[in-house]
């Protein structure tokens, strides 16, 4: 097992002290990171004591320590999963070759792009969620928000370490840029669309941690297969922390659904809003929004970049060992590609409805984004099934559902086209008429936010619109003082 040094300025298990140049560079980046955290991290809670877990090793049994800490004093460290002896590459054109400990020159730009794109998502989500603490439904949830936030910060450190240690001056410049972009900034936005979306209420937060962090899980699983061993080891440990983020999302949504059903049964008309709850049709609208935004994060259905990543052995499929053919040279993936009539002087898909479909046998390597998206869709459905079981058990007649993967898409073969939630084509005019039935409106947003105007800082209380969790964290009761206000 790799030795962990927690006494240094930057906790790590990469023997940082043996490379003084790298250590000095990262120590010079550290105050800039802290400035970014104070500026864009959770607003109004920097002086509070938060009961947080902190990574202290990569041992599966004892990798985290729980205690009170002020967030700016959190020990963000650099941790890579232990090296697998004699590891060989498991897919692509380099199948069977020894894993690379250094970046192959011809793959430098490709790998840097992957690291930067992954790294950019980590601070973005902190920025998106910075004001949520001021409307928290409970101290338990407030603590979970901050746990997610500090660990996204640690994941940023993980990517910055790779940039500094393996990509020279270009990597150092990219690390600086990760602190300069801002979520939703019109001049310097984050790289991926979902990470520029406002996340201004707790329903959106739970949807984000359920759907968008789940995309993160599958991206990390694919990168964990990388022939570049430091990237593989980094993402393998990140997955350990990411699991809690999805737990926060799934249990948060289950608690909302449970409480909504309780409030509906309390009301003669089964009107959750009349009882101060979030009605299920509104839950469905936010589900439609964040699921479709998260689907876009996988990239185009037919992608030469995805083919290059796989061929070059830099990004594989989730759990590559479960597949039989690790070169994927002969297989195809069948995709129905939409046909849009050409109208002179009108941009492609500009207001035109899909008039037909062309069934295309896409070379499997070019469909790797869709292969990964398939896994994601199936995994997302499992949680929706749990929510529907809660609804059914309460006696309420309603069923949540994932919309078609064609719905509300901004990338890939469906970008610029319009479909209903079942995947049926619509004209632009029909879409404009009906979109408010499927996506949150300004009125929906105002209502949801009206429920969350006053934060709940008493550990023994819970907001009316969400059920209490079944149990607390790390053996503590639900009403434990997870946050000590300064």
TrEMBL record:
GO terms for biological process: phenylacetate catabolic process. The keyword Isomerase applies. One of its GO terms (molecular function) is isomerase activity. Its EC number is 5.1.2.-. Keywords: Isomerase. It is an enzyme of class 5 (isomerase). GO terms for cellular component: cytosol. This is Isomerases acting on hydroxy acids and derivatives. It comes from Sorangium cellulosum (strain So ce56). The lineage of its organism: Bacteria, Pseudomonadati, Myxococcota, Polyangia, Polyangiales.
């Amino acid at each position: 097992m790799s030795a962990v040094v927690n006494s240094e300025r930057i906790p790590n298990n990469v023997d940082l002290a043996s490379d003084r140049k790298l250590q000095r560079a990262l120590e010079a980046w550290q105050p800039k990171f802290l400035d970014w955290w104070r500026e864009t991290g959770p607003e109004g809670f920097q002086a509070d004591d938060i009961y947080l877990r902190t990574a202290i090793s990569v041992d599966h049994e004892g990798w985290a320590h729980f205690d009170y800490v002020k967030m700016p004093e959190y020990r963000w460290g650099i941790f890579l999963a232990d090296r697998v002896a004699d590891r060989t590459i498991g897919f692509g054109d380099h199948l069977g070759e020894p894993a690379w400990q250094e970046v192959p020159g011809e793959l430098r730009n490709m790998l840097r792009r992957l690291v930067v794109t992954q790294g950019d998502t980590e601070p973005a989500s902190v920025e998106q969620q910075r004001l949520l603490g001021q409307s928290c439904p409970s101290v338990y949830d407030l603590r979970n928000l901050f746990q997610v936030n500090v660990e996204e910060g640690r994941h940023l450190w993980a990517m910055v370490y790779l940039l500094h240690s393996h990509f020279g001056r270009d990597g150092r410049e990219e690390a600086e840029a990760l602190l300069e972009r801002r979520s939703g900034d019109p001049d310097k936005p984050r790289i991926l669309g979902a990470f520029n979306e406002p996340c201004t209420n707790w329903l959106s937060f739970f949807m984000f941690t359920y759907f968008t962090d789940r995309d993160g899980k599958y991206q990390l699983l694919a990168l964990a297969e990388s022939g570049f061993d430091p990237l593989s080891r980094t993402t393998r440990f990140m997955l350990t922390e990411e699991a809690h983020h999805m737990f926060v999302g799934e249990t948060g949504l289950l608690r909302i659904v449970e409480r909504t059903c309780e409030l509906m049964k309390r009301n003669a008309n089964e009107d959750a809003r009349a009882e101060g709850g979030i009605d299920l049709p509104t839950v469905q609208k936010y589900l439609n929004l964040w699921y479709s935004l998260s689907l876009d994060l996988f990239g185009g259905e037919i992608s030469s970049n995805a083919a290059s990543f796989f061929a070059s052995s830099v990004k594989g499929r989730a759990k590559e060992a479960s597949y039989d053919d690790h070169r994927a040279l002969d297989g195809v993936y069948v995709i129905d590609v939409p046909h849009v009539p050409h109208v002179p002087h009108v941009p492609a898909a500009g207001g035109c409805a899909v008039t037909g479909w062309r069934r295309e046998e896409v070379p499997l390597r070019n469909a790797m984004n869709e292969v990964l998206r398939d896994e994601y869709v199936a995994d997302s459905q499992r949680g929706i099934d749990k929510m529907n079981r809660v609804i059914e058990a309460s006696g309420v007649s309603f069923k949540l559902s994932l919309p078609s993967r064609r719905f509300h898409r901004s990338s890939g073969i469906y970008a610029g086209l319009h479909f209903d939630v079942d995947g049926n084509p619509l004209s632009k005019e029909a879409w404009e008429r009906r979109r408010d039935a499927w996506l949150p409106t300004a009125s929906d947003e105002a209502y949801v936010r009206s429920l969350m105007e006053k934060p709940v800082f008493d550990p023994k209380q819970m907001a009316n619109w969400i059920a209490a969790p079944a149990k607390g964290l790390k053996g503590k009761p639900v009403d434990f003082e997870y946050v000590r206000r300064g």
